[in-house]
Amino acid sequence: MARPKIALIGAGQIGGTLAHLAAMKELGDVVLFDIAEGVPEGKALDIAESGPSEGFDARLKGTQDYADIAGADVCIVTAGVARKPGMSRDDLLGINLKVMKSVGEGIAANAPDAFVICITNPLDAMVWALQKFSGLPPHMVCGMAGVLDSARFRHFLSVEFDVSMKDVTAFVLGGHGDTMVPSVRYSTVGGIPLPDLVDMGWTTQDKLDAIVQRTRDGGAEIVGLLKTGSAFYAPATSAIEMAEAFLKDQKRLLPCAAWCDGELGVKGMYVGVPTVIGAGGVEKIVNIKLTKDEQEMFDKSVDAVKGLVEACKGIDDSLA
Ligand code: APR
C-alpha cells in the first residue's frame, strides 16, 4: 500500500515543525506548499537530510504549485499572516480571508477527498471560511485549537499536582480566544475530577482559577516571551495528533473546532467541541451536558466567534 500523502499549506514556523514531526513519525510522504519561493523547498530538503540519521522513511517535497498536493489524504493549513503592531482585527481578517480563499480553491481542485485541519488564526472564523471556500463536506474540515488549549491546561495541572502529564485529562471548549472555556468539571487527574481534588485539599480553588486563566492566556504568554513570533512546537504537535487519529482511524476523542448542527446549542457554525476523529474525519460531536454557568461561558464564547464570522461576511460578499 502506498504511503499516505500529507500536504502542509504554509511552510512557516508551524509548517516546518509539522513536516519534521510527520516525517519522524512516518505518517506519510510530505508536501510543503508556500508562496515564499525557496522556503518550502529548503525546509523539505533540510528535513529529508535528517532522515539518514533519524532513520525515517518519508519523502519530502517543497513547492509553489498546488498540483503537487494532488490526492493528499490530509491537508494542514497554516498559511497566512500573524497580527502585527498597528494592524486591526479587521485588517488581519481581510488578509487571512483572502489566503483562505486561495487555499480553499487549491484544496478543492487538487485534494477534494482530504481531511483538512486549519490552524490559521483567528481560528474559528478561518476554518469556517475555509470550509465555505473549499466546498468540502463540513465533517472533513476542522480546526486545531482545543487539543492545544487542552494540552496547555494539562501541562499546567501536571506541574501543580506534580504528576505525569499522561494522567491528566482536560477539555477546553468554545472559541480559540480570550473567551475559551477550560472545563474544570470534565478535567481529571487519574480519573478524579478537579473539583474533588480541591475538596481533598490537593490544590486550592484560587490556584485552579489561576491555572484556568493562564490557559486562556497561553498563546499570549508565548508571544510575550518570543516577542517576534507565536507558538509553534505545541500547535504543530496538536495538529499531528489529529492527523494521526484520522490516518490510523484511531477514533480519538479530541476537542477541535468542528461544524455544529445543534450540538451544545450551536447551529450552523464552527466552534471548539469534543469530537471523535477517525477515518471518517470528524465522526461524532460529543454532546456533553453543561451546567448553567458553563453554558453561559460557552455561549459568550460562541457569540465572540459569531462576531468574527459576521465580520468575514462583511469583508467578502460571497460568504454572506
Ligand atoms: N498561500 C500559502 N502560504 C502562504 C500564503 C498563501 N496565500 N500567505 C502566506 N503564506 C505563508 C507565509 O509565506 C509563511 O511562510 O504562510 C506561512 C506562515 O508562517 P509563519 O508566519 O511562520 O506563521 P506560523 O507561526 O507558522 O503560524 C501560522 O497559525 O497559529 C496560527 O496565528 C498563527 O495564523 C498563524 C498560523
From TrEMBL:
Active site per the UniProt annotation: H176 (proton acceptor)
Binding site for NAD(+): G10, A11, G12, Q13, I14, G15, D34, N96, I119, T120, N121
One Pfam family, short name: Ldh_1_C
Residues given in the record as substrate binding sites: R83, R89, N121, R152
Source superkingdom: Bacteria
Alphabetical keyword list: NAD, Oxidoreductase, Tricarboxylic acid cycle
Functional description taken from the UniProt entry: Catalyzes the reversible oxidation of malate to oxaloacetate.
Family: Belongs to the LDH/MDH superfamily. MDH type 3 family.
Protein name: Malate dehydrogenase
Top-level taxonomy: Bacteria, Pseudomonadati, Pseudomonadota, Alphaproteobacteria, Rhodobacterales
Gene from which this protein is expressed: mdh
